[in-house]
Amino acid sequence: MQDYKFKIELSVRDYECDLQGIVNNAVYQNYLEHARHEYLKSIGLDFAECTRKGINLVVVRIELDYKFPLKSGDRFVVGLNFEKESPVRFVFYQDIYRLPDEKLILKGKVTGTALNEKGRPDPGLMP
């Protein structure tokens, strides 16, 4: 497991699994989103407060590479690195590793932007 600016440990819940007994592919996006929100809180940026102020942090692109499935009860860690890609885009590089063996489960790249009250990207609003 590489170094990350932020990490959070979670566990798979039974209801997140499909009929095959593995985590449904869409659920991984929930894990990644939860990690992003917790990261933003850790740097003093409250997602809900941004919205109340008319700053809308939105996802514009998600790339996910599924490497290996998680199953009910598995513990895992989501690692996150954050970079500004341009004046109006930022990227979260996020990986999921199963614990305790640190097996790579998923690699993700989530691109976002900050929209003003008119729905336009605004560099002055970027995290």
TrEMBL record:
- Entry annotated with the keyword Hydrolase: yes
Q: Does this UniProt record's set of keywords contain Hydrolase? A: yes
Q: Which InterPro entries match?
A: 4-hydroxybenzoyl-CoA_TE (IPR050563), HotDog_dom_sf (IPR029069), YbgC/YbaW (IPR006684)
Originating species: candidate division WOR-1 bacterium RIFOXYC2_FULL_46_14
Question: One MF term in GO for this entry?
Answer: fatty acyl-CoA hydrolase activity
Q: Which family does it belong to?
A: Belongs to the 4-hydroxybenzoyl-CoA thioesterase family.
UniProt keyword list:
Hydrolase
Query: Which first-to-last residue range defines the signal peptide?
Result: none
Specify the protein name: Thioesterase
